[in-house]
Give the backbone structure.
Amino acid sequence: MRRQPLGRMVVWGVLILSGALLVGGVEAQQAATTHTIFMNAVEFKGSTTTGKLAPPSANPAELSKGYVLKAPGEADKNAPDQWEVASYTFTPGFITVRQGDTVALSTFVVNGDKHEVAVLAPDGQIVMPQATWTRGQEYRVSFVADKVGTYHLSCATHAPTMTASILVLPR
Ligand SMILES: [Cu+2]
């Protein structure tokens, strides 16, 4: 008999606490914000010699225009056994935001004389039409990520691997 009121108090206590946590959780949902992200257009390079490792049997450039192979003899005339590979990329190459957030990208071109860059929404809609980005300059693109899915900032010259993906999660 005496334990029943206590039991009810516990039940009510749990319900009230749960409600408070739920309300708190809803209030904790962040308002749309602006993400300022500094990126670089870079070229990773690797080199070795035929004495250490045989060059790849297939040309990496057949996998992506962003991959480069300088075969033995092409890399360095004075070192005919040397061969090199390179890969153009954006770094960071993956960004996550919430729907409604503003993505403000500042990209500095370090490697590659020029890149043909465009930004597309998840549905393929053009966010930024293709433009030529040249070495030594910084380019700014700002847009509201209003669609859930993945936006792509990509270079047509070095496709498909020279791409930065911006994943937009539902708010
Ligand atoms: Cu490029």
